[in-house]
Amino acid sequence: MRLNWLLIFIPVALGLYWAGARPTLVFLASALAIVPLAGLMGDATESLASYMGPTYGGLLSATLGNAPEIIVGLFALRQGLVDVVKASLTGSIIGNLLLGLGLCLFAGGVKWGEQEFNSKSARRNAGLLMLAAIGLIIPAVFHFSASSDQEISVHISAVLFFVYCGSIVLTLRNQKAVFGVAAAEEELQEQGKVPLQEHAGGELGWSKNRALTVLGVVTAAMAFMSEIMTDAIQPAADAMGLTPLFAGVFLLAIVGNAAETFNSIRFARANQVELALGVTVGASSQVALLVAPVLVFFSMLIGQDMDLLFSPFEIIAVMLAVVVTRDLVRDGQSSWFDGLLLIGVYCILGIGFFYIPAATPS
Predict the structure, then answer these.
(1) Alpha-carbon distance 101 to 268, whole Å?
(2) What's this model's pTM, rounded to 2 decimal places?
(3) Which DSSP state fits 201?
(4) Residue 138 domain-assigned?
(5) For residue 4, what is the DSSP state?
(6) Out of 94, 98, 160, 172, which could bridge 346 as a Cys pair, Cβ 3.0 to 4.6 Å?
(7) Structural domain of 235
(8) 360 in a structural domain
(9) CA 217-222-223 angle, 5° bins
(10) Which residues contact 345 (CB under 8 A, 6 or more apart)?
(11) Total tally of structural domains belonging to the chain
(12) Do the domain assignments include residue 362?
């Protein structure tokens, strides 16, 4: 089942926006329109990757895997929604690790019972996430003693981005992907298992020119929808009685991760839980090591001064998500109850975020 039918919300969102409809309706319509666009962007990327060979193709897939989050974040920064963007980073990490992984383990466990997977790649990504969590803690620790939160954040972003570049070097030297679905597929091939053919972009039968055209058109459409959505998110959140923190952690993050979550559920239902882990855990690693630094650097160019100073509850939420995930993938086995536990932790954190007052500093 594809999500392309949601493309109908592109003209709906445009009509509502031009008609001056309520911000809540504009936000919901534009958010639903972005979901299939993110999926098509992934298809186009995977199609191009199939023409580039396993190493450079895997690198392309990993690098562009978080393009929707970057595009949405860039336009949100242009709107001055710095707190919302920072919250969306937290939301992407805990959303992928708890909600995305929880849903796919639950869906796969209901169909197959106990599932087994190679935990090596998942543990490696979880280790990278622990590094990122430390990067979130340091600005908060030195908040009152440092002369500039922005300066510390830029330096930490540089370190995180350097680690990401190191993963690229590892990919190129070892001919093996580090993040995402490409890495998970290589794990499957080493075990003699066949990856989900339905996923691979090359299996769509797209030519290189078609893939490039789709990627260009979808990127432009996503940029336009992102501008509409970010323009409406603040008044929509106010109308619904939501704080910027909650709007970023749960509304904006869920939109950016919807296509990845859908794919991870599909992989788990096909009893290929390694691919599901590659999508969810790998995407969270990239949010911390690539998306966050890129947005910090971009904010300097437009004068928004985004930093990595997160609220204590955000830091606790990320640390809990990382620790719970590392503990779960340690034994290489999962069941539907493991997924239910992750979803439960996500819902509990959601309740906590909902009741944090708007005056709480982020």
Answers:
(1) 10
(2) 0.83
(3) G
(4) yes
(5) G
(6) 98
(7) 4-355
(8) no
(9) 100
(10) 98, 102, 320, 321, 324
(11) 1
(12) no
Here the tokens at position 356 are: 């944090």
Amino acid at 352: G
Match 């999926």 to its residue by tokens.
39
One-letter amino acid at 307 equals D
What's the rounded Cα separation, in Å, for the pair 330 and 350? Answer: 26
Q: Are 308 and 135 in contact (CB under 8 A)?
A: yes
Instruction: Encode the chain (362 residues) as per-residue pLDDT tens digits.
Output: 467 888 999 999 999 999 989 999 999 999 899 888 888 887 887 788 777 765 666 667 666 767 888 888 888 898 888 888 888 888 988 998 899 999 999 999 998 888 888 767 667 767 777 877 787 777 777 765 555 567 788 888 898 888 888 877 776 676 565 666 656 666 565 665 655 544 444 556 788 888 889 888 988 998 889 889 988 888 988 888 888 888 888 888 888 777 778 878 888 888 888 778 877 887 888 888 889 899 999 998 888 888 888 888 888 898 889 888 888 877 888 899 999 999 999 999 999 999 888 654 44
Structure tokens at 119: 């935990």
CA distances from 341 to 155, 160, 249, 275, 353 (A): 36, 30, 20, 20, 18
Query: CATH code at 215?
Result: 1.20.1420.30
How far is the C-alpha of 214 from the C-alpha of 195, rounded, in Å?
A: 24
Sequence-separated (6 or more) residues with CB below 8 Å from residue 262: 3, 39
